[in-house]
Amino acid sequence: MKNTGTIVALALLVAACSPQGETHNSHETHDPKGHAAESPFARAPDKAGGGVHDTMNMISAGDADNDFLRAMIPHHQRAVAMARTELEYGRDPQVRALAEKVIATREAEMVQMRAWLAARGASMDKPAKAGAK
């Protein structure tokens, strides 16, 4: 995907050019009549359980590998929830195909990460001691 870098750079440019003082709810979209409506994607992370703050507040035992795995699982859960929302509401066949790929890939990765945590004596609820493998 050669365009990935271009897309990321464009997104950063748009974000940098956005007015800083403007108040806007990023979870809102507007219907054709101009009324604000909450996007189904605003609720997708809630369906996945756990939020960014839960990940940021997780207890660490000082093992970066375990912490990475324990932070990535909720991240992937939120990605899967958003992809499922796309399948529920989206109509573009290419975007829906991407959502299906995200679900399959992230679910497989979560299985692998949970297995690695278990092998390291850790879980989502319990960090292993630093250096434990």
Automatic annotation (TrEMBL):
- Show where the DUF305 domain sits: 35-117
Query: For this UniProt entry, which residues form the secretion signal?
Result: none
Sequence ranges of Basic and acidic residues compositional bias: 24-36
The segments labelled Disordered in the record are 21-53
One Pfam family per UniProt = DUF305
Instruction: Name the domain of life.
Output: Bacteria
Q: What is this protein called?
A: Uncharacterized protein (DUF305 family)
Which source organism does the UniProt entry give? Answer: Sphingomonas leidyi
